[in-house]
Design brief:
This protein is of the alpha/beta class and 285 residues long. The chain has 2 domains: 94 residues; 164 residues, 3-Layer(aba) Sandwich (Rossmann fold). The strands form 2 sheets. A 5-stranded parallel β-sheet has the order 2-3-4-1-5, with helices on both faces. The chain has a two-stranded parallel sheet with strand order 6-7. Helix 6 links the parallel strand 3 and strand 4. The radius of gyration is 22 Å and the shape is elongated. The two termini are 20 Å apart.
């Protein structure tokens, strides 16, 4: 039995033991590891439909760790840059002025003058120019539950930029369930009425747990094959701990791979998962 190690070289050795070329259960938002669950498939369809049909405002919500940011990156990767300009804002907790500046810069422009009127005019000019070229424009805002009401009202004003037939910009709000509460407030009634598509991402169903794990293992495998055997009881334990939340599945599976490596075993059993959960929750003596 090997001793546990926490340095980078040690973890590289862990993944090599399973025939993996990279970390399969990293908690970063990498679309390469995207698992098309029923709810994620529906969310992806709603996003692409809303963007393609120029529906204006779109709202996507989900609990922490359900893969919302990964979904954002997935959508942007699938958009044709020849027909659609896109920007993704990951830190919306800014003032309305600061956010407007970030939006302009994320669309690849330099801010000419840092006044509200000048920046609105510059953004309007950009949207009109893209429209004349036949291009759609998409602004995705992650962690949108952190937006201030005043900032949301400014975004509503941006959405007023339109032709007689279509919206010049599609704005996608992505956030935790608190976003729905925020947008349902009476002070944002005008904005709420403009949201044409709303979708809430639910955690994975129990029967999706193994396919989710296998998808990530195949994506990280050096030969495209799954070389780790998660037993049925380990899958049960993983779901019991995670409730189907992808991020929690990643956390416990990553810990379990280390336990399997230490035990020199390619089989991950239920007991390994239970011990991993105890370690994650700080319950190990």
């Amino acid at each position: 039995m090997r001793s546990q190690t926490s340095d980078l070289a040690g973890y590289t050795e862990v993944y090599s033991f399973y025939g993996l070329k990279e970390q399969p259960f990293n908690i970063t938002s990498d679309p390469h590891f995207f698992y098309n669950s029923r709810h994620h498939k529906e969310a992806l369809f709603n996003l692409k439909y809303g963007i393609g049909q120029r529906k204006g405002f779109i709202e996507i919500t989900g609990e922490i760790g359900t893969g919302k940011t990964t979904l954002c990156h997935m959508v942007i990767d699938q958009l044709d840059p020849e027909t659609t300009k896109s920007a993704l804002i990951l830190n919306p907790g800014l003032s309305a002025m600061a956010l407007l500046q970030v939006i302009i810069e994320d669309f690849g422009m330099e801010v000419f003058r840092k006044t509200k009127v000048a920046m609105f005019k510059q953004l309007n000019g950009f949207l009109i120019e893209e429209s004349t070229k036949g291009r759609n424009v998409v602004l995705m805002i992650d962690e949108a539950q952190n937006l201030k009401p005043k900032t949301l009202e400014e975004l509503r004003m941006i959405s007023n930029l339109e032709t007689r037939k279509e919206k010049l910009i599609q704005i996608v709000f992505v956030g935790q369930p608190e976003l729905r509460t925020l947008l349902d407030s009476s002070s944002l009634r005008q904005l709420r009425q403009r949201i044409n598509i709303r979708y809430h991402i639910l955690p994975l169903q129990k029967e999706e747990t193994r396919p989710y794990i296998d998808t990530r293992l195949k994506a990280a495998s050096a030969n495209g094959k799954v070389t780790v055997n998660f037993t049925n009881d380990s899958i049960d334990e993983i779901y019991n701990f995670s409730g189907g939340v992808p991020r929690l599945i990643n956390v416990v599976c990553d810990r379990a791979l280390l336990a399997g490596f230490v035990s020199e075993s390619g089989k991950i059993a239920g007991e390994m998962i239970r011990n991993s959960v105890k370690e994650i929750e700080g319950l190990h003596s």
